[in-house]
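Lecture notes, part 5. Sequence design as translation. It can be helpful to think of inverse folding as translation between two languages: the language of shapes and the language of residues. The source text, in structure tokens, appears below.
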């Protein structure tokens, strides 16, 4: 996937793989009130997609934390004040990775180790466009001794208020990983975790059963399964056997299956 490393840093690449699910078959399907719709899957991923707009800038600031007294240069859209334990960053109409303007202040505290580093970002009325973020995201970043793999574990406890006033909350843990190979095909990315989203009066619980994986030569997830529960209705989403295609399968409790396009 093009710009794969950058997408992992911003914790948004998984949205590309999942947003836009479309039904391909209605044979033997449960009733409409017992299905998972494309719009619902899109909603489940909204918080990660929006928060990722700020994650890239936070990663850049975190990487530059050695300049403890650093402030923004003339013409830059943010200012950061560093302390011994973190920094406070204020954004003023920043356009990050082609996203909408980012405004507001985020407080970050961090710990740095030899092979792992972590930081917690606390948002209070932080805006991406007209969408408001509140809550915390804790990141732990680690690399193996050979430096050929990196993983990011993200613990979120946050809410997102959409432009129309709808509120979506997310709580849980996701681990994103990348193992670098000699070719695009052998460079593998993965997602695992357990998280819950509450939106429109519905509660959605997600848990990966087998790590969701893909490679840098394909824009889709190619293997792995996850369970998705909506108010007690549990389905399984199977991403395939390794082939690079845009097909996944939803398996319902009654055994009915539905192929969907990614």
């Amino acid at each position: 996937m093009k710009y794969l490393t950058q997408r992992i840093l911003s914790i948004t690449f998984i949205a590309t793989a999942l947003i836009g699910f479309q039904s391909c078959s209605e044979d033997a399907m449960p009733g409409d009130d017992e299905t998972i719709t494309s719009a619902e899957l899109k909603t489940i991923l909204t918080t990660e997609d929006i928060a990722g707009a700020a994650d890239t800038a936070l990663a850049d600031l975190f990487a530059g934390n050695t300049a403890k007294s650093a402030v923004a240069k003339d013409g830059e859209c943010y200012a950061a004040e560093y302390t011994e334990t973190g920094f406070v960053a204020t954004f003023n109409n920043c356009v990050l990775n082609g996203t909408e303007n980012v405004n507001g202040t985020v407080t970050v505290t961090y710990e740095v180790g030899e092979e792992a580093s972590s930081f917690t970002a606390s948002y209070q009325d932080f805006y991406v466009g007209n969408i408001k973020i509140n809550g915390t995201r804790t990141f732990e970043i680690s690399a193996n001794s050979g430096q050929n793999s990196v993983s990011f574990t993200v613990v979120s406890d946050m809410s997102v208020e959409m432009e129309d006033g709808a509120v979506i909350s997310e709580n849980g843990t996701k681990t994103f990983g990348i193992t670098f190979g000699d070719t695009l095909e052998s460079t593998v990315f993965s997602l695992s975790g357990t998280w819950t989203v509450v939106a429109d009066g519905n509660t959605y619980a997600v848990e990966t059963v087998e790590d969701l994986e893909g490679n840098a030569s394909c824009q889709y997830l190619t293997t792995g399964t996850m369970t998705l529960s909506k108010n007690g209705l549990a389905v399984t989403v199977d991403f395939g056997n390794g082939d690079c295609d845009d097909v996944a399968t939803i398996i319902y409790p009654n055994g009915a299956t539905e192929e969907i396009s990614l």
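The translated text above is only one of many valid answers, since several sequences can fold into similar shapes. The first strand starts at residue 22 and ends at 23.
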